[in-house]
Design goal:
Oxidizes proline to glutamate for use as a carbon and nitrogen source. This protein is of the alpha/beta class and 485 residues long. Helix content is 41%, strand content 16%. The two termini are 18 Å apart. 2-aminohexanedioic acid binds next to loops.
Amino acid sequence: SDITQLARINAARLRPAPIAVTPIIDGTPSGGEAQPLTSPSDAAVIGQVTFASSRDVDTALAAAAPWSAAPQDRAAILIRAADLFEAGFGEVFALLAVEAGKTLADAVAELREAVDFLRYYAVQARSLTAPARGVFTCISPWNFPLAIFSGQIAAALAAGNGVLAKPAETTPAIAAWAVAKLHEAGVPRSALQLLPGLGSVIGARLTSDARVNGVAFTGSTATARRIQTAMAKGCAPGTPLIAETGGLNAMIVDSTALPEQAIRDIVVSAFQSAGQRCSALRCLYVQEDIAQPFLTLLTGAMDELSLGDPWAIATDIGPVITREAADQINAYVEGAAKDGRLLHRLTAPTTGSFVAPALIRVSGIGDLAQEVFGPVLHVATFKAREIPQVIAAINATGYGLTFGLHSRIDDRVQTISEAVHAGNIYANRNQIGAIVGSQPFGGEGLSGTGPKAGGPLYLPRFTVSQADETTSAWDQPAQFEALTA
Ligand code: UN1
C-alpha cells in the first residue's frame, strides 16, 4: 500500500547508505584523494567522492571493450537491471534527495523514466542486426542524474557497445548506484566503466581519443560545441555525436485558453524541478486582452507553492543544484527587480541553495540573453494580430526544444504548431515530462542533434548501419507496453 511504501521510503531516509564514490574501471574501484560531496538542501556533507585521474582515463580507455553478447542476452540483462532499479526505489529516492535536491515527486518520475529507457532500448535490441560501433563515451547532466545517465548508457549497451560513463560532477553517487546495478544485472565490467570527472579535463580526454567511436552528451550548447571540436581533433572522421543541449522555451496563451488549466500547466512547466529542466518554460506570451486577470491567477497559484526540504511530501520545490547556481540566479532576479521588471517573487528558505520562484516582465523572448536554469519565468504580452511576430521571435532564438500552446481554436493550434521550430510541441497541456516510447524527447537547431531519446530512431545511431535499421521494424510499442504494463 502507499503507507507501506512511505514507511519504506522513510526507513531509507533514516539509514542512508554510506556514500563513497570512486571511478570503477574494469570492475575495480580506483584510489585517490577523496573530496566531500555536499547536499544542496542544507549544505551538509553527505559522502566522499574520488574523481578520476588522467591515469584512470588511460586505464579505462585501454580496458574498454564492446559488449559482445547476443542481442537477446543483452536485452535480458538490461531488463534485469530495470527490475533491480525498481526494487531499489528507497535508495534511489534517498540519493536523489540528498545529492540532487530532488523532491519525492521528481524522484519517482526520474526512476520511472530510467526504468522505461532500460526496457525500451532492451526491447529494440532484440531485433537488432546492425553491429555496434565499439566504445561510446556518455556524458550526462546533473538535472536528470539517473534518467539521462541511464538512458544514454542503456542505448549504447543495448546496441552492443562498451561505455565510458562520465556523470555530472555534482551527482556522482546516483550514477555509481546505477552502474553497480547494471554490473549486478550482468553487464560485463569491461563494457561499463564509471569515470566521475572534476572540471572539464576528464570529459575532454574522453571525447578526443581515437579509441572512442561515438559520444552521447546532454548538457549545455556551449559544451556540445567544445566536444565537437575535441572529437574533430582526436576521433576518427564521422564519429557520431548525439547531443541534447539547451533551450529557450516559450508558451503562447491566447484569449480562448481555459485559464485554470493553462495556469496549472504553466506552474508545472516553469517551476517543477525548480525550473532545472532543459524542457522548462522560460518565456510565457499571454494575449493582452486577458493578461491582467490571467497574471493575477498566476501569481495566486505561485503563492500556493511550497519550497523546502525535498523529502517532505508537501514540498513542491526543492533547492537548485549548488550554492553558486543559486547565487547566480538570485543575482539575475535582483537585476530585474532593480530595473522594475520583477512582477512577483516568493520567499525562499535561507539554508541550502534555494531560489524563490519569480516572474519577470519582458517585451519578448528576444530580451532573454540565455537560458536561466532555475524557477524564473519571463512574461510578455501580445495582440492577436502579432502572432506571426511572436512566432518569428521564438524561432529567431535559434533554439528549438519545447514549445507550449494554449488555445481552443483548432486552426490556430495547427498553424502555430507548424510554424514554430521545436522538437517537442505541446498543445493544451504542460510542456515538460516527455515519455519514453510515446513522447520521445529532443530538440532542433541549438537544442540538439537528434534523434530523439526514447524514440525509435535513437538506438540505430549507436550502430554502424543506421539507414537499414531505421526502415526495419524498429518501434515495437506493443512489446514495450507489455513489459511496462
Ligand atoms: C532535460 O531537462 O535535460 O521532458 C531533459 C522532460 C524530460 C526531459 C528533459 N523527460 O521534462
